[in-house]
User: Fold this.
Amino acid sequence: MEAHRGLPAYVPGEHAEDGRLIRLNTNESPYPPPPAVQQAIAREAANLGYYNDPDCAALRRALAGLYGVAPENVICGNGSDELLYLAFMAFADACHPIVMPDITYAYYDLFAAALGIPIERIPLEADFSVDPGRYVGLGKMIVLANPNAPTGLALSPGDIAPICAGNPDSVVLIDEAYVDFGAESCLPLIAQHDNLLIVRTFSKSRSMAGARLGYAFAQAKLIEELDTVRNAVNLYSVNRMTQAAGVAACAENGYFMDNCARIMASRRFATDGLRALGFEVIESLGNFVFARCPQMPGAHLAAALRERGILVRRWDAPRIEEYLRITIGSLEEMEALLRAVREILG
Assistant:
């Protein structure tokens, strides 16, 4: 019990449900799921008296069909966070560290701390990019968010393949939470690399952050190992309404990809608008931008936006304390952001 009292605390973005604030701080989709998904949830609610399928068989088949793999190459979980945690539990421990960038998704630190896993950090380059060559030949589990968060920069499959080949006896985990916003997926590499694990989520590009649904791809043996851990820890973790919503969402993939295109267009609009106001903006491939305003400290700008009803995300960590991570919402929300920034800067 004592060991867990010192765990670091994850500080989520401010949560606002009343609609008075524009939420550009949690990387949610500004668009609702289609009616077919909402109807699937409503139909399944009548069956709440029965346990859900622990194997998520229908959902795994739907994902396999959508992505051109076999169902045994797929596993589902309660958000991608559960699958990340299970992967840490399955493939690393106190004697087998994890290697990851020094600036990346903060929850990795919490998972490692909870499981007593040491972390070795490789600093991002001066431009916040990942140098893939520094991850070759380490012989340790590699964890890379791709696109990275909070920077939005991504490696190509051609960059990832040597990392897999160069660490043949260790798992290479690629977190593709934001891949649908313009990055290239590493999914085709799975056939050649039995140590590659790709984790994804329905939260970002599929408008289902509140449903808590994640999924992962790998060769069958790796999926079996994850399944063994999942079955021991939380057998029924994906409830039946979420499974039904996921199956319906797979059938509506065109709707979601159209929304991704709209978000990418709004990202271009926001990036150009912020740069016109003097911001430094990293060219993002996520549903967010990482931006710095040279005219004003990041903390002051975030507070001023909050006063005007707009939430953004920032951290006190070295190298990024002056940057804001700004979720890409609808075009109207991006226009509201730019109006507020113009007002703040005078």
